[in-house]
Amino acid sequence: MTVSEAGKRGGERTAKTHGHEFYEEIGKKGGETTSEKYGTPFYEEIGHKGGQKVKELIEEGKKTGGM
């Protein structure tokens, strides 16, 4: 069994054992921790990066006639 296969099996077992709510809770905790650690400027920066990528993709689509 590869490491990837073992990870997949472990993830599937965790999903069966804990359910959807478990993942919601750990996601919320992770988001709160990230917010406390990095603050608002971090979210502004990653939001800007995401917006720039979208802008690039739109421009690329226009050049190739995709829109």
Assess the beta-strand content as a share of residues: under 5%
Gyration radius (Cα, Å) is 19 Å
Oligomeric category: single chain
Work out the helicity level.
Answer: over 70%
Q: From the helix content, strand content and strand pairing, which structural class follows?
A: mainly alpha
Q: How many DSSP E strands?
A: 0
- In terms of per-residue confidence, which ranges show pLDDT below 50 for 5 or more consecutive residues? none
The backbone outline, from C-alpha atoms, is: flat
Compute the number of helices. Answer: 2
Terminal CA distance reads 46 Å
Number of domains: 1
List the helices and strands and how they pair.
Blueprint: H1 3-18, H2 20-63
Q: How would you portray this structure in words?
A:
It is built from two helices and no strands. The chain has helices at residues 3-18, 20-63. It is flat, with a radius of gyration of 19 Å. It starts with a helix and ends with a helix.
